[in-house]
TrEMBL record:
Coiled coil: none annotated. This is Histidine ammonia-lyase. Gene3D superfamilies: Fumarase/aspartase (Central domain), Fumarase/aspartase (N-terminal domain). The keyword Cell cycle does not apply. Keywords: Lyase. It holds the Pfam family Lyase_aromatic. One of its GO terms (molecular function) is ammonia-lyase activity.
């Protein structure tokens, strides 16, 4: 991807997954112009936060030109106090891609060499080790990336960990000596929360399609009513997401002899089956709203201060654009939507394993009593749903006071993104359980054939994971199915 204007969230997610990133000539020109503005501000002694002043509660302490390099370096070192396991490869790439996109707006004032080094690290897939915990916003995560640029910290490539200086050597670069404002720009803004949000949006969009597939498989295996997702009936409710889910379900269930054979046996199905378009559709609508907010964030300048004007008439604007309240609120709203997908999936799993409502062998076991089948897999799904319920509490209301009352309101956009990613991981595993249980139920059902697309889906699952007969740890099967869920369903069952 060659970046000129603001990227779409899907573009940042693509870079997170490994796509290349480059800047268009116009973007490079903006970066260079902003740097010239910073140098002019520094030379003229125009007061600018983090340029020639301290940061946080030290914002009124003036820093003379000879010490501005030291200020930039010290900001990076002092802010690098994150803890915990490092972010994953995709998460780190997402943050770095959003960081480059932010600098390309031409208001941060870092030298082109900073951006070149970030791009070179991405291109080589040599990534800073970014501790995942310890930041109320973005500072510690961003500082861990900045450490590598100055030859400090640690980086990872595949399974190898190396010092920051070695990472730079491998891409043919020497450690950077940070100039005025660069230390602050490297730890500032919202690239951390925005990059992670882009990745969360991508993963949720993928799992929404899998949720529809899993629901269709359960619907078919349980012999539910054929006309539940009729287009005319669903058109009575206004929701783009609902209509999209209805169309998906009709596609998955088209041609099901099993459903045709049971037509008219029930007045209506239970809500975990009948309300799939409404619950899944609401999650799709929530995703669309969140995507609009993330797109706005990517199109915004979130560095504080932002620079503008010209080298002859430089301007510095101190503001609060690094406060990502809108993003935090949007991600907090998306979290329960993703959790609801897992919750209704668990309810369908329960119906599949419960002989009182399924008409199938208890717990989908081949030999009840001797075999427990999917009994504990449903317990696992229940545990993950309960964890999601706890994670769905809003991060944006956590509050807190830092930096000696200078930062007396905190919106926690990055924690909102990281806990959303945890919810999405749990959703993926609950859907994996439903797909495994649905495949088992479909094969135990006998009688009339399921829908052709569902037959193809079950066959694809069976290529990797055989019928379950209490002959191996079921947790391993769930983990193996994660690979399948990393691709869209239509790609997985393609001949």
């Amino acid at each position: 991807m060659e970046l000129d204007g603001p990227p779409h969230p899907a573009s940042i997610a693509a870079v997170a997954l490994g796509a290349p990133l480059a800047l268009a000539p116009e973007a490079w020109a903006r970066v260079a112009q902003a740097r010239r503005v910073v140098e002019s501000l520094s030379e003229r002694g125009v007061r600018g936060y983090g340029i020639n002043t301290g940061v946080g509660a030290l914002c009124d302490v003036l820093i003379d030109r000879p010490r501005q390099r030291a200020l930039s370096r010290n900001i990076v070192l002092s802010h690098a106090c994150g803890l915990g396991e490092p972010l994953g490869r995709e998460e780190t790439r997402a943050v770095m891609a959003a960081q480059v996109a932010g600098y390309s707006r031409g208001a941060s004032g870092v030298r082109p060499e900073i951006v070149e080094t970030l791009l070179a690290l991405l291109d080589a897939d040599i990534l800073p080790a970014v501790p995942s915990r310890g930041s109320v916003g973005y500072l510690t995560h961003a500082a861990a990336i900045a450490l590598v640029l100055i030859g400090e910290g640690r980086a990872r490539h595949g399974g190898e960990t190396m010092p920051g200086a070695e990472a730079l050597r491998r891409i043919g670069r020497a450690p950077l000596v940070l100039e005025a404002k660069e230390g602050l720009s490297l730890v500032n803004g919202t690239p951390c929360s925005t990059g992670l949000a882009c990745l969360a949006l991508h993963r949720i969009a993928l799992l929404l399609d899998w949720a529809d597939a899993a629901a269709a498989l359960s619907h078919d295996a349980l012999g539910s009513q054929l006309g539940t997702f009729d287009a005319d009936a669903l058109a009575l409710r206004r929701s783009e997401g609902l209509q999209a889910v209805g169309a998906n379900l009709r596609g998955w269930l088209d041609g099901s002899a099993r459903l045709a054979a049971r037509a008219g046996r029930r007045t209506q199905d239970p809500l975990s089956l009948r309300a799939v378009p409404h619950i899944h559709g609401a999650a799709r609508d929530a995703l669309a709203r969140a995507e609009a907010v993330v797109a706005d964030e990517l199109a915004s300048v979130t560095d504080n201060p932002a620079v503008g004007g010209t080298p002859e008439a430089p301007e510095v604007r101190s503001q609060a654009h690094a406060v990502a309240a809108a993003l935090a609120l949007a991600l907090d709203a998306l979290a329960p939507a993703a959790a609801a997908l897992a919750a209704v999936s668990e309810r369908r799993i329960d119906r599949l394993v419960n002989p009182l409502v399924s008409g199938l062998p208890a717990f989908l076991a081949d030999e009840g009593g001797v075999s427990s089948g999917f009994m504990i897999a449903q317990c696992t799904a229940t545990a993950l749903v309960a964890e999601n319920r706890r994670l769905s509490l809003p991060a944006s209301l956590d509050g807190g006071i830092t930096s000696a009352l200078q930062e007396d309101v905190l919106t926690h956009a990055t924690p909102a993104a990281t806990k959303l990613l945890q919810i999405v991981d749990n959703l993926r595993d609950v859907l994996a359980i439903e797909l495994l249980a649905g495949a088992q139920a479909s094969e135990l059902h006998g009688g009339a054939a399921p829908a052709p697309r569902l037959q193809a889906l079950v066959a694809r699952i069976r290529r990797d994971i055989p019928f379950y007969a209490d002959d191996r740890p079921l947790g391993d099967d769930i983990e193996r199915l994660r690979v399948l869920l990393s691709r869209p369903p239509h790609e997985v069952i393609r001949p």
